[in-house]
Amino acid sequence: MHRLFALKREYTRAIRVGWFLALRQIKRSNKGTTALIIFIMVLTFLNLVVVSGLLVGLISGSFKQYREGYSGEVIITSAPGRDYIENSPALISFLGHHPNVTAMSPRYTTSAQILGTLNDNPEKNERPNSIGARIVGIDPLREEAVTGFSRFILSGSPLAAGEEGAILIGANLIKKYSSFADANIPGLNFLEDVDVGTRVRVTLTSADGRAVRKEFIVRGIVKSKVDEISTRVFITSNELRRMLPVHKEQVQEIAVKTDAAYASALVRQSKQFMGSNAARIQTADEAIPSFLRDIEATMTVLGNALSSIALVVASITVFIVVFINAVTKRKFIGIMKGIGISPRAIQFSYIFQALFYGIAGSIIGLILTFAVLRPYFNAHPIDFPFSDGILVATPAGAAARVAILLAVTLIAGYLPAKLIVRKNTLDSILGR
Fold first, then answer.
1. Helix (H), strand (E) at residue 211
2. Model pTM?
3. Ranges of each domain in the chain
4. What is the pLDDT of residue 411?
5. What integer pLDDT is reported at residue 21 of this predicted model?
6. What is the rounded distance in angstroms from the CA atom of residue 150 to the CA atom of residue 315?
7. 292, exposed or middle or buried, with CB in 10 Å at 0-12, 13-18, 19+?
8. pLDDT by residue (tens digit) across 267-278?
9. Beta strands in 91-210, from DSSP E residues, in sequence order
């Protein structure tokens, strides 16, 4: 017990003396060198947090757009093998009176054939100017409340409530606007010579083969990085209901806007309300395709790999700085040992110096990440073809990376100090 107490007192004294020596060393060190080391640590921290955060943010940006531009926090669709959501009117009423639902948008959807050229018949062996697409009937006011649909209008104007004879077409269905128009992909067709003001014909075919046709004037072109918008056509829900041959009261999709933290609870309540009626009820995160989740995981691994390289560079930098510092002051270290300062206290002094560089770099890096970079990328996301890239950085994730950086820095400071302090005291004083 006495030996344990003595050991504790020895370590306490060594830490106090080491702290004093470290402060003296830092105050008397070259300011330019100190600033350069801290700058390297800042870059290392940013590499740990920002690079991986941007890689993950490429996919997270598409998740965010999917939720804000299409699904809301909860998306309800028809069950597999069903053409509509059973008992839709009752579910819509339930959600409309739910205190935690801020907005919702019921949508009618069905397959349709869009003919883009009404005046000229195609030449022999020429492909008709038509495509198959998903046509969606929306209530413009409700859709605007959930997704802000009007912001996706690339050209023309949005649908008005109660408007008839007007249609919006997704940009990826029209050769003039599609991002894939120059790709020679077999089976990928586009409407040609279709733009705002063009007249097109929509044909719906029922299960028994009966066709319903109606002509529309293109009111606008919609474009988004969410495929469910750029590859569909939109008319008002009342007009599509009149064209549907059956199940005119049953919708195929319901996008629900609520608090993100409440989404899971709303899914459970909706499932309980539906009972035996078939529907697929999911949060936006659950509805995201699995291949995107796989891409997100791959980006995370890639970001961690790049961060590991940065950690190695930082540890080598700290090791070299501390080692050179200790070598150049080897005689001074020998004198300190000669006058009774313990080797352990000297080692602690260099460890504290290394931790100073790591802590200073981490603090500046945290300020840059959360006060400058993350707000900037949220306001000005990176424009990628499939998403608006954002910076994904959380306090918990940043704290873990700070801990890793400090642990690596501590080891990099301890090893060279131990190598120098182990040398014979007399040899150190004499420079041998």
1. strand 211-222
2. 0.74
3. 15-65+292-430, 79-278
4. 80
5. 73
6. 52
7. middle
8. 999 999 988 777
9. 101-115, 130-138, 153-156, 166-170, 199-205
